[in-house]
Amino acid sequence: IIALVLKDRQSSVEPTADELERKKRACGREMVRPINSTLVVAPASVANQWASEVTKFTGSSRLSVLVYHGPSRKKLNTHSFGQSDIVITTYDVVASEVGVGNENDEKASGDESGDDGSFVRRQTRHASPLMRVAWHRIVLDEAHSIKNHTAKRAKALFRLRSTHRWCLTGTPIH
User: Looking at the chain, which runs of residues are DSSP E strands?
Assistant: First the structure.
């Protein structure tokens, strides 16, 4: 993952038409900011290890890493995410900030025909910063922890927008 982020950062190639179309679909009708950052969602026990591994293998000046966890995360915004190559957060932060949505959120997503988008703009403005961006890539570490698709944690992750999604696990999933 670290090598892929480095490669993406070093290549200055313009995105292809297919890539632009995927970004557009990731944004949907909501007013979100597309960014080229990678969001890594990991258990709290290994979140800081991700940050130290990135620094260890790339040097502190190669990739910028932001840990979105703890009380200091309230000071961060979508601009902070866009300036970072990798943003690391935990499953619990995503579950608590993004939530599972409700009937109004379903209408806000633009699934209902004839929706003028006015609620979308109002709802998105007050949403978690994690929801106000369309990530380039979302990586779920220890992804076996969301194998139950009906759990609150899994539903919250499904609501995040991204162009690419990766699930990593060393545990066999049955």
Answer: 33-34, 38-42, 65-67, 86-90, 133-140, 161-167
Q: What is the pLDDT of residues 5-35, one digit of tens each?
A: 888 877 755 566 777 676 666 666 556 788 8
Q: Look at strands 33-34 and 133-140 and give their pairing.
A: parallel
The CA distance from 97 to 37, in Å, is 19
What's the predicted TM-score (pTM) here?
0.77
pLDDT tens sequence across 48-96 = 999 999 989 887 668 899 999 988 888 888 889 999 999 999 999 999 9
How big is the chain, counted in residues? 174
> Alpha-carbon torsion 156, 132, 27, 1, what sign?
negative
Closest residue by Cα to residue 132 from 34, 56, 41? 34
CA distance 106 to 112: 8
Structure-token pair, residue 93? 């932060």
